[in-house]
Design brief:
Elements: E1 2-6, E2 14-15, E3 18-19, H1 21-37, E4 42-45, H2 57-72, E5 76-80, H3 87-99, E6 102-105, E7 116-120, E8 127-133, H4 138-149, H5 159-171, E9 178-185, E10 219-223, E11 229-231, E12 237-239, E13 256-263, E14 266-274, E15 281-286, H6 288-292, H7 295-298, E16 302-307, H8 315-322, E17 326-331, H9 333-342, H10 353-363, H11 369-384
Parallel strand pairs: 1-4, 4-5, 5-6, 8-9, 9-10, 10-12, 15-16, 16-17
Antiparallel strand pairs: 1-13, 2-3, 7-8, 11-12, 13-14
Length: 388
């Protein structure tokens, strides 16, 4: 049987105030196209469908339309809540989605109450069991361990120990002669960050080792880290990554969805399917003239611009007028440091206020005659009060 593994859609994400819904619509359209072209039996979405727990109506509409379109390909669609999603809302809509053969899992459930989703693959008739593990906070991990594993769990217990109990309890419902899959939204030790994750819910106690997953599971479909990667483990433990660059920290990631082929008796085979509909994010360095001269090269890319010249009034506007997709403009930190290091130590005792202000501007990479003239005028006005 075949299924698609995707995660971390972050629908509703804005970048420096710029809406990305049209871009996200194109990305999801490409994922739907992959599902249709490869005639998959299921689509697994491993959390963070939304970028916020209170998504806009437009973001919700886009996700619902995408889920329905994936269902219309004939695939079984299963999605879990990530740390950016509203788990309670997922569970509230679960009965409605069940009615159209789409499974949403907001919070951890025992295997018999929806924690394991079982179905027959339409292409082969093989039995498929998918254990679903939505994002668990440290506080809720205690409750989940009690609910699913039926064991007393103390707050002092390690997060990964409680998550292991949940995984083991769900895996106990796997059946021989079936394709057994686990889907989770969490951080696995050794995973590389993609660049746009919410750090406070990815480090410290929020992680488990890859060995937490059963060795005989056919595939572990993960969400949360935005970079496509397979972690060393007896079974395939895979992050599909985000299908588009969520922030500039992810500009070098290669967006994909994973096409997985598995049978009860053979190891999973994974093929990465490119997702190219998202706009490229790019960081560029240079003087204003150097960067503006490259405008045609940048096309529709969103830009983070690091200027290698001193600050002056209107500098940002110069860049954005020529490059409307420049979302962030700042002085290059390396350039600022190099200028500061070249400044000699000066004896200020016999220097005028104008000279001292000029030194101050130079130390902060500000080179604007209008600023210097304004200071001198204001200084003259202040010091002349009472002398007339």
């Amino acid at each position: 049987m075949k299924f698609l593994h995707t995660a971390d859609w972050h629908v509703g994400k804005t970048l420096k105030g710029r809406s990305r819904l049209d871009e996200q619509r194109a990305v999801l359209g490409q994922i739907i196209g992959h599902a249709r072209e490869h005639d998959v039996d299921a689509v697994l979405i491993a959390g963070d469908l939304y970028d916020t727990a209170a998504p806009s109506p437009d973001a919700q509409q886009l996700v619902v339309q995408a889920l329905l379109a994936l269902r219309d390909t004939g695939a079984k669609v299963i999605a879990i809540a990530g740390n950016h999603d509203n788990a309670a809302t997922f569970d509230a809509y679960r009965p409605l989605m069940d009615a159209v053969d789409i499974t949403l899992a907001g919070r951890v459930r025992s295997a018999g109450k929806g924690g394991v989703v079982s179905f027959d693959a339409r292409s082969t008739g093989e039995r498929v069991n998918v254990a679903v593990l939505p994002f668990l906070s440290q506080r809720y991990a205690v409750k989940a361990a009690q609910l699913v594993a039926s064991t007393p769990a103390e707050m002092s217990r390690d997060y990964d120990a409680m998550v292991r109990e949940v995984i083991d309890a769900l895996a106990a419902s796997f059946t021989p002669g079936a394709v057994n899959v686990m889907m989770a939204h969490l951080t696995v030790v050794g995973g590389a960050f993609g660049g746009g994750e919410r750090q406070a819910q990815s480090i410290f106690e929020y992680h488990v080792p890859a060995a937490a997953f059963p060795a005989d599971v056919h595939y572990v479909a993960l969400g949360h880290l935005h970079r496509r990667q397979t972690l060393p483990a007896p079974a395939p433990v895979v992050y599909s990554g985000s299908p588009f660059a969520v922030d500039f920290g992810e500009q070098d990631n290669i967006p994909v969805v994973c096409l997985v082929q598995a049978s009860p008796s053979t190891p999973a085979r994974i093929t990465d399917l490119a997702v190219t509909a998202g706009r490229r994010l790019r960081t560029v360095h240079g003087t204003v003239d150097e960067i503006v001269a490259r405008a045609e090269e940048f096309g529709d890319d969103y830009l983070r611009v690091y200027i290698r010249e001193p600050a002056r009034a209107g500098l940002r506007e110069e860049v954005t007028d020529a490059l409307p997709n420049a979302l962030e403009v700042r002085i290059d930190p390396e350039f600022a440091v190099s200028i500061a290091e070249r400044q000699p130590t000066t004896d200020h005792r016999d220097r005028s206020p104008a000279e001292l202000f000029a030194d101050f501007c130079t130390a902060r990479n500000v080179a604007d005659p209008k600023v210097q003239a304004l200071f001198e005028r204001l200084h003259d006005e202040v010091t002349s009060v009472g002398r007339e």
